Description:
The chain is α/β, with parallel strands linked by helices. It has one domain (4-309): Inosine-uridine Nucleoside N-ribohydrolase, Chain A. The protein is 37% helix and 17% strand. The protein has helices at residues 14-24, 43-56, 80-83, 105-115, 130-138, 168-172, 174-181, 192-195, 202-209, 214-234, 244-251, 298-309; strands at residues 4-10, 29-36, 64-66, 121-125, 146-152, 187-190, 256-261, 263-265, 276-278, 290-296. Strands 3-2-1-4-5-6-10-7 form an eight-stranded mixed sheet, sandwiched between helices. A two-stranded antiparallel ribbon has the order 8-9. The longest helix has 21 residues, at 214-234. It starts with a strand and ends with a helix. The model has no long low-confidence stretch (mean pLDDT 97). Alpha-D-ribofuranose is lined by residues 11, 13, 15-16, 39-40, 126-127, 152, 161, 167-169, 242-243. Calcium ion binds next to helix 1.
Amino acid sequence: MKPLPIIIDTDPGQDDAIALLLAAASPELELLGVTTVAGNVPLALTTLNARKVLELAGRRDVPICAGADRPLDVPLVTAEHVHGDTGLNGVELPEPTLALDPRHAVAFIVQTLREREAGTVTLCPLGPLTNIALALRQAPDIAARIRRIVLMGGGFFEGGNVTPSAEFNIYVDPQAAHEVFTSGVPITMAPLDVTHEALTTAARIEAIRALGNRVGGVVAAWMEFFERFDEQKYGQDGGPLHDPCVIAWLLRPELFTGRDCNVRVETLSELTRGMTVIDWWSVTGLPVNAQVLRHVDADGFFGLLTERLSALQ
Ligand code: RIB
Ligand code: CA
C-alpha cells in the first residue's frame, strides 16, 4: 500500500516530539514536512526543537518550516510550566546541524497541497491551529485539496486543561480553531477525552527505556519530565500522552472509538474562551463537522509506540 502523505504542524513540546518520532519510524506514512507554530514555547524554540527531534530520528530528508509566532488575534500564551523552559526539558539534545527550510510554514502547506494530487495530503496539527487557519485564509482553494485534518485539541467530558472549559491548543488560538472547524475540511479530533486515557505509567516508560537504543532513553526521560505536572494535578500514575494519539490513529484507527459530531469553538466569552462545544448527543441538529475520538486501547497504543521506537537509533 502506498504510504499516506502527511504534514505535521507542531509546537514541540515533549509529546509533540514523541509524535514526530512515531511518524518518522512508520513506513506507512510519507512525512512531507514539519511546520512549526508558537504554542508550548515561543516559535524560535518550537522550531529549534523540531530540528533537534528530526535529527535524533535520523530524518534529515524532511523539510522543517517555521510558521506563526503568535495567534491570529490574541496574545500568545505558552506552557513552560508543563514542558520546561526549552520545551523539551528532561534531556539535553545536541544543537542540530539540520538546516531550516527558508519557506514560511504557511507557504509550504499551500505549495505542497497545490502540488500534490487533490485529496491525498493529510494535515496533522499538534499545537495551536494558527498556521492552518492562515493557510486557509491565504489560499481558500486548498480546503478542497486536503484529504483530512487529524488534530489533537479540545475536550468535552474531561473539560479543559488551561481553564475549566478549554484545552491548551484551542485556548491559545480560538479564532484559528473556529476557522478550521468551519472550513468544511474533513476533521478527526483527538480531544482530552481520549488522550487522558493514554497515560505514561511507570511500566510503560520502563518498557520504552528497556529498548536500549538512544531514542528509548530520550523518550523515557521526556515522559518522566512531562508527566510530573499532570500526575500532581490529577493524582494518578502517569500523564496523558496527547499528540502521539494523532499519529497512532493514522496507523491503527482500530485502537480508537468515537463518533461523528458537530463541534463549535467559543471565541467571544472570557469565561469559556477556547471551549470546544461537542454535540455528543446530537441535540442541536447542526451538521456533523468532526469525527471525535473518545476512547483508546491504551495498551495497544503504547505497544505500537514502543515497537516503532525500537526501529530508531
Ligand atoms: O493540551 C495538550 C496539547 O497542548 C498538546 O498538544 C501539548 O503538546 C500542548 O501543545
Ligand atoms: Ca502540541
